[in-house]
């Protein structure tokens, strides 16, 4: 019996390692193509020389370091952050439809940024980032409060419906501010989603918060794995469900706020990626969360690359690509759940 368990565990570890190695290879390839391809395509050798033998006299090298490379890094940050948020939310709430976009969190952060654009013209990037996290917190609180109303209390169905309602509410507020204060085309493009404006100075500000948030998510992964078994089981195993849910919520708010300020309120990354990862490596969240970070980054880089290439030399917002993929998948998940929304 013990031998069979050890063999199954060894096979599981091998599968996990294989998919992580494959994911790293695919991510390296996608990142290289993301740097090389765009309105002006370059060879991979040019990318290599720009990264390791930078020459200020070469225009392509300057283009790569000033625009292409920070954009790719931003895709990595956004993709991994949103995917980890989705994995944590799906694990702690046991809701297969949980996602920071569907739960209203991204819209709350987006409204805070619109508020800053309208009323705080002298704001710093750090101020905007903190406002985004605060807006995400307010939206989360409202979503959970509305979902908990009624005799039956909070259910996965109510949580999704409350999240969609809050998303529409804050989306309407953002549009009002955009029209009222003439925030312009930049606001509309940012709302659709895109990392074209990413700069090294901004990434340097968010990098420490991203590192802390991702490290905290990995540290919480064993507790999330226990929470995914159910609140009663988690309590029986000595886990404090309220504490874990509270810490997980803080991590989700921070990572979502970072993502929104970089790319805008894009959705479905956190919905799709954990499902793909669970299909590949199983339901153990000690593995699902780190794998989601890797494959979420891969999804974001690939989607941004497709967004640049499908209508060259014009840019397609990355949010459009995610929506085209995510909406059919969301409908598929709803059908698979076979639940009636109340």
UniProtKB/TrEMBL annotation:
Mode of membrane association: Multi-pass membrane protein
GO molecular function, a single term: transmembrane transporter activity
Subcellular location: Cell membrane
One GO term (biological process): siderophore-iron import into cell
CDD domains documented for this protein: TM_ABC_iron-siderophores_like
Pfam families: FecCD
Record-linked InterPro entries: ABC_BtuC-like, ABC_transptr_permease_BtuC
GO cellular component: plasma membrane
Keywords: Cell membrane, Membrane, Transmembrane, Transmembrane helix, Transport
Domain of life where this protein originates: Bacteria
Similarity remark: Belongs to the binding-protein-dependent transport system permease family. FecCD subfamily.
UniProt protein name: Iron ABC transporter permease
Organism, as annotated: Paenibacillus sabuli
